[in-house]
Amino acid sequence: MEPNGAAAELRPREITQESVAAALRNDKGSDARLVSFAVQECTKKGDNYACFVTSVQVRFRVGAEERATSYVAKLNPRRADEGLNEMVSQIFSREGTVFTEVIPAMNQILARIGCPPIAVAKCFFCSLEKAKEVLILEDLRPRGFKMWDRRRGIDAAHARLVLKEIGRFHAASLLLESELPGKDILRTYSLADHFMSSDAAKKTLGGMVSAQLEGTAHILEKTPKYERVSQWLHETKDESMDMFIDMLDPANYKPPFFVLNHGDCWNNNLLFRYDDSDSPVQVMLVDLQVVRKVSPALDLNYFLYSSFNGPVRQQNLEEFLKVYHDAFCHVMSTGGFGQPFSIDQLRAEFRGKMLFGCLSGMMLIPIVLSEDEDVIDFDVKSDEDMEKFMKDRQKVLLDMSQREDGLLKSRLFDMLDEMIEFGIIS
């Protein structure tokens, strides 16, 4: 019962006979017997940053009949940087808890009130031993789910599916919290600690974010109309991580705008299923590593300013907010609760959190539009490595801004125009 062929050489040590057999039993039942398994690559460069993702092809037997199935495994990549390693261990622990405890508890409540479950993959195995973390999850590809081309930008049809699901996720977290002892979802599930709470992680990520913002500032400084934005970025880059962490602190929020967020809702973390006419009919939320309790406007800003071409967002924003609000309120009312906030209050909250959208957009838009040669290498081992990373990253951004497709500048300019209009950048 060892992996077969060339894939055996690729097998990470965390994917063991015991872990695959346990996932198989949890998926197919106690009668399922593992025959063999093989590890195969299932993602391409730029699809994943915080973890290593691979697929596990499984042969198993139920009685005399041999069958096949597949899983997706997420592993700790064991980065060279101490801060990143500490952060990844924290987020793996968080994701494991969300998959094995929080989502099942939400889904029990949703089933009781006649609502569909939260749209995420099933988790069949979870081990959170530090530096050896592994999650073995349902492989959604056989059900027809696939990633949208991130460089194209989410369109309105895909966006509606995502916003409905995020609304349901947020509302389900409130229904769950209402039934918990002490009515505190963070303490009950040990989700209160911030994934960037360590000084080492903050230093490493802060350097990366600063490089991204400074590279954007260099792009803008020679562009008419955006000189003041460039100046703002130069002034803001060194404190941007503190600003970002402050906006992620649950202590800064209170009801009614205080729900469990997905936390990393951008087009790399979404899978879609399509009908025969190639129209999207279902979404699955992927990567629950940075789930946190903050304002729902953070998820909305993060999604809308990371994953869209400007015209789609601008022309549909009111509808998008209503789609989210309707889905959120439907779950709340079905669960026996009133409407916590109106659409007007949601709009005001969204605009009040646009700085989060702005910083998220400047960090993520270049990643969204990256070609293979642009993808970030997170293996920063020293201050010298960080200095080189910052210079290399700024060069990559400048090169991207000069490409004939004009995608990077177009996305940035559309977002920045909105930030200027609403006074986020003055």
Description:
- This protein is α+β, with helices and mostly antiparallel strands.
- The protein is 48% helix and 14% strand.
- The protein has a domain at 98-120 and 149-421.
- The chain has helices spanning 17-28, 82-112, 156-179, 185-188, 199-220, 227-236, 240-247, 296-306, 310-334, 343-352, 354-368, 383-401, 407-421; strands at residues 32-40, 52-62, 65-75, 123-127, 134-138, 146-147, 259-261, 270-274, 280-285, 292-294.
- The strands form three sheets. A five-stranded antiparallel β-sheet has the order 1-2-3-5-4, sandwiched between helices.
- A hairpin with a 5-residue loop joins β8 and β9.
- α8 (296-306) crosses α10 (343-352).
- It is globular.
- The model is unreliable at 1-10 (pLDDT under 50).
Topology of helices and strands:
Elements: H1 17-28, E1 32-40, E2 52-62, E3 65-75, H2 82-112, E4 123-127, E5 134-138, E6 146-147, H3 156-179, H4 185-188, H5 199-220, H6 227-236, H7 240-247, E7 259-261, E8 270-274, E9 280-285, E10 292-294, H8 296-306, H9 310-334, H10 343-352, H11 354-368, H12 383-401, H13 407-421
Antiparallel strand pairs: 1-2, 2-3, 3-5, 4-5, 6-8, 7-10, 8-9
Helix pairs in contact: 2-3, 2-5, 3-9, 5-6, 5-11, 5-12, 8-10, 8-11, 11-13
